[in-house]
Predict the 3D structure of the following.
Amino acid sequence: MRIAVFSTKPYDRTYLERANASREHEIVFFEPRLTRGTVALASGFEAVCAFVNDDVSAEVQATLAQNGTRLIALRSAGFNNVDLESAKRLGLSVVRVPAYSPHAVAEHTVALMLGLNRKIHRAYNRVREGNFSLGGLIGFDMVGRTAGVIGTGKIGEVVCRILTGFGCNVLAYDPKPNAECEPMGVRYVPLDELYAQADIVTLHMPLSKETHHLIDADAIERMKRGVMLVNTSRGGLLDTPAVIEGLKSGKIGSLGLDVYEGEAELFFEDHSGHTLHDDVFARLLTFPNVLVTGHQAFLTEEALTQIAETTLASVDQFARGESLTNAVPT
Ligand code: NAD
């Protein structure tokens, strides 16, 4: 099949070409994001391969469908950027990569926790400038601390496993508890109890209408003073201005982010020579106790291999007219 790949980075090309070596798809790589302005590039391609910040709205889909596209293959687990009702109406199939490596994201989540806790980002800069003072670098032992994991699907489960391994007391909240978690010693509790008890709160649920801005001023108010908050799921789970108020007041002791609500305008590109116009993001970067990575939690060799393999396996199934194992129900 002819596949138009949007938001292409060098690693996408490397891993997709490797996966295609044993197949015969015609893959064309486009660097721009999929938007109303770039959708014409996909004209004549039966399959479009999109990533997390591509615009797969009803309007973009209408043009895709009109120009011959029949399959939208997301090389991500999340599908919050796709209008599923419109896909159904237009007869577009949507596939995703539901589990490429939960370990990649879970391990990055814990890297943010440890980095923040032991102030690795500050120590790194100090040492390079010949400053070996330890002032302000005091952390805490993870053993015995209470971590609250919200969302215990594939990634949350691995986070629970790592944190129980550290000797943390792990509390969890999920409307659909995971049977793997309780045997590890994880205790499911109502959200209020998790907020009240947790020294660390980490988010691992999808972004939806229900979870949008789940962490708002009210939720923050119910958390422990000095709580560490970590979000590697989707930026829209946090009401970022409320989080900034929490940081200013000291209610939030530290914040680790791999995702940001306005990331589509920022992440995955080099903006180092330009003025930062997002004042909310700029404010976040002024706090010494905030550690931000640019949506890189998925970026491991294993995950990229799996993303490319699963994506092309879905295209194979579509081309053969088979049922799609990784279809997003529309
Ligand atoms: P999953 O579907 O396996 O698990 C999600 C869990 O969230 C489910 O158990 C579900 O019951 C639970 N959930 C739903 N609504 C909830 C709510 N209101 N409160 C608490 N829990 C709720 O998904 P996953 O593979 O573990 O991925 C989780 C999220 O991680 C994805 O939706 C995606 O947004 C994000 N992600 C980020 C990256 C990255 O690179 N930063 C990579 C992959 C996935």
User: Anything to note?
Assistant: The mean pLDDT is 97. The CA atoms of residues 34 and 54 lie 5 Å apart.
